[in-house]
């Protein structure tokens, strides 16, 4: 078995903030390299999610699930779950599993989590890789990284075959821990030990982790190493690095990556476009973001191209500029494309209409939003009610009371202090 060769990921070399010249040299090297043309078609999270949702139950054992959901005492919750350890309708329900582990972790009872998950491995479901992946991810959720890695390494003890899918699950947990020494060991020693061949997801997990840690030079080197294993960067690889470059305020490198991606026949997806639009809006270049939005509308690569996020970013950009007229123009285009307003767009428009003292427009938007059970933040509602009341006209005061009455219908309800404050404004 050939070793993976990630030894350039030495912990002594890791630092936050990379040298741009070094990154540019890596990009130039990549430009002249003949990488493979096959691209991987889905993201890291899809593979983990698809694997961990295997065996989802078709029906629900109401009594057991209700008791688990309602129980707040960690010890009683542990005992209740342990009593249902062989109840498939409980253990195969990933939402119940995740909720139980999250609450035990929140209570600091990692001993209970270890007891439950180790017991699950010994049961028949412990022979399924998809179930073991869920165990690995649950250990990760509880920040029990060592247990997650040991679970992967010990899979043969439960009679469970390991593949790159379970390897990627453990690798994802490790990258989230930001333990660079452990990541280096896992990448260089474990694949050869268990006959695992890394895939595109594996590289994307590492690149994503390095980008989140701000170690961009190493992330670029990982991408450069993909060609040695017959893999090419896919749209997710490029999007991760483009986003990280924009966040580091290196637009030249981000734009160079975009050009290289297209030259290699890897077309940007909606996430890639949104990353660029986000950067333009953050830099106050909302008109340029709007031009890119118009281009996406003409391109019509897919029915969701552009999507709600794209429109929300541009609308927010114009609102921050104080150009509410253009914000409403983009909002009208959004509606004409057949999209329905969502909570984020309503929140953005209501907030900035209140800021601009456009109380009537804010009221109409807020009324529509709340009638669709989408509630703005409590601060925005308070600002709107205050603005209506300060107008002094009876008609506006009635509108303020109507907003207050709609706020009372929110499920889950605002807390009593928030309701009392709204009432005092009316």
From TrEMBL:
Placement of PPR repeats on the sequence: 199-233, 234-268, 307-341
Alphabetically ordered keywords of this record: Repeat
Keyword DNA repair carried by entry: no
Pfam families per record: PPR, PPR_2
Gene3D superfamilies: Tetratricopeptide repeat domain (1.25.40.10)
KW DNA-binding (keyword) present: no
Family to which the UniProt record says this protein belongs: Belongs to the PPR family. P subfamily.
The protein, known as: Pentatricopeptide repeat protein
Organism for this UniProt entry: Salvia miltiorrhiza (Chinese sage)
